[in-house]
Structure prediction request, 126 residues.
Amino acid sequence: MARERTLDVEKFRQTLEEERDRLRSELKRIEDKAAGRDRLHSEQAGQDFDEPGGDAATETVERAQSMAVGASLREQLDEVLAALDKIDKGTYGICDSCGKPITKKRLAVLPWATLCKECRSGLSGM
Ligand SMILES: [Zn+2]
Prediction:
């Protein structure tokens, strides 16, 4: 249990678990909203669009937006879960692609990073 690492993995685990919980509740909120269980009108103060179609158009746009947000949240949740999995396997902080260590600086900014900067930037369209 008292394994020493150069990387403070437990601190990252805590950060990742908090992020996982945050993403899950955020996703749930969006899904509830999309399912129509949360029909609270979002405030539109300051918006002054003069669109024909009014509410229906706005609702379609909002729905599309929350679907897009939901998709990116789910993507990020996958990354967080993958990072937590790597902590369990003892490979956290190691690039999935080239096997080199991911810099601490990068992990400080992106605790769920599973690829090093070079491999990440080498992937176009992801
Ligand atoms: Zn790499």
Q: What stands out?
A: The two ends are 37 Å apart (CA to CA). The pocket of zinc ion is lined by residues 95, 97-98, 100, 115-116, 118-119 (CB under 6 Å). The mean pLDDT is 83.
